[in-house]
Design goal:
3 helices, 73 residues, mainly alpha
């Protein structure tokens, strides 16, 4: 019984979040394609972009993400 509940919960979450996840993936792909073009034309801009991305990862609080992800459960 719990398995069916969890399956329905996962299916519901997938249907709810899938369009947003697909949108985020498209945006990220476009961003990476833009940076790929700039590797040769604007290496300084690419280096700054990587620095910003690395800084974002350095500031990630996993506990806060998990808390937000489970807020409605």
């Amino acid at each position: 019984m719990l398995d069916k509940f969890v399956d329905r919960l996962m299916e519901s979450a997938t249907l709810y979040y899938m369009p947003r996840i697909e949108e985020m993936a498209r945006a990220r792909k476009a961003e990476l394609e833009e940076m790929k073009v700039k590797v040769r034309t604007s290496p300084g801009e690419v280096e700054a972009w990587f620095g910003k991305e690395i800084q974002k990862l350095s500031n990630v609080d996993i506990k806060e993400i998990m808390k937000d992800a489970t807020a409605g459960i």
